[in-house]
Amino acid sequence: MTKDLIVQTTPQETRVALLEDGRVSELFIERESQRGTVGNIYKGRVTRVLPGMQSAFVDLGTERAAFLHAADVFEDLPENLLAPEERHAPIEQRLHEGQEVIVQVLKEPLGQKGARITSHVSLPGRHVVFMPTVEHVGVSRKIVDDEERRRLKQILKEIRSERGGGGLIARTAGNGRSREDFERDARYLTRTWDEVRAQATRQAAPCLLYHELSLVQRLLRDLLSDDVASIRLDTEREYQRTLDLVTQLQPALASRVHLANGGRDILDDHGVTAELERALRSKVWLDSGGSIVINQTEALVAVDVNTGRYVGKQRLEETILKTNLEAVRELARQIRLRDLGGIIVVDFIDMEERKSRQRVMQALEQELRRDRSPSKLLQVSEFGLVIITRKRVKQSLERTLCQPCPYCSGSGMVKSVATVCSEIFSEIRKLAGDVRGRPLLLRVNPEVARALAGEEAGVLRELSGLVGTSLTVHGDPLLHQEQFDVVVRPGA
Fold first, then answer.
1. What's the start-to-end Cα distance of the chain, in Å?
2. Going by CATH, does the domain composed of 282-390 fall within 3.30.67?
3. 3-state secondary structure of 139
4. pLDDT of residue 5
5. Which H helix or E strand runs over 15?
6. Is domain 3-35+216-274 given the CATH code 1.10.150.240 in the classification?
7. pLDDT tens, 212-268?
8. Residue 126 backbone dihedrals phi, psi, to 5 degrees
């Protein structure tokens, strides 16, 4: 399988699409105004302890207090001020209001919930993960060769002993790598942790001690390998940064980093924009004519499989089996593309024969192995109901790009104002060569107009520079929030 990374960068956000054999399998979005917090390390202050839930709320200086469970409290860190005899005590004996703790964000805030945090810090490198708060050596489960696993464990044990402790886990990218590669990672990560602890002694809570890498840097760290055929970017600055990083990580792959021709939308050129639009719809059509319907709720994600227009050629069981198998492949892709997490309940079409149900489950297990996020699979009935649990770290694609619809009292979703402003930027950038120097009128919904005059004013400044003239914005209440028109003003 060949992989391609397509990177689009604007002043407002970065979008990265992962293509596998030419098809979009994952999409990552990071907005400058809403940088993710997973992986960040904070010095926080306990604001409330809940003995009945064995948890506490911690102020990180963010909008909402973060949630810390008793199992995620590490007792041996001096910064956490806990004595060894308190290791297994109830949380009310281990934490108190006003106490300062060093914590790392595990999950982004979701809905009305604050971030999930832990004091079991982990710092990922290219080949190894360093965990300063535990004494553990491990190897990624995706490395299956027993001899290689033994070799890696021995290397990590020696490095840990020489560096005075801490936990180390060999990542999948470490398969076949030399001891020097792991030592270099361990030195860098240990130095990073020392800097974090030094900052914690100088700064008062709440404060940010360590910021996780940018989106492109994280993806290169985690995904860069020989099966990445190309990395394509649309801005000179990000191209140079990416080329420098790839040269450091894997010099042999530097020739695969390419700068796309200017003036064209790089996501459009690779079919990502159209795939993104389909990923925001509930119904996904299958090649055979069947369909799957995906609905997200607060509690879970419900998926329904239908034969649709597909009527088969022979037996009913064969028709149903073919539809279910096709749905399995598409569902696994949609789970990754939409970044669905938590509990996913799938209602496959009922199958009479046991061997048919087994084939569907085996196919689903096989497809889910491609996913980097951990998941578990459970068949709960012979009537086709299957439950998938998938680790949820951040908001789904729909929650990231959309907001509750004001036209239907929150029962549906529309693209957010920030997303519309980003689309306006992309559309005018495509037209810039044809309209340069000509005065333009931009008709938008009043909510978008207000944003362009306020928090999104940078979009207009950037566009004015692109087209060489100013843009006039007109708020039209008759336009849907997602609609906009770019008009060359009369007489131009």
1. 51
2. no
3. strand
4. 95
5. strand 13-20
6. no
7. 888 999 999 888 888 899 999 999 999 999 999 999 888 889 999 999 877 788 999
8. -70, -45
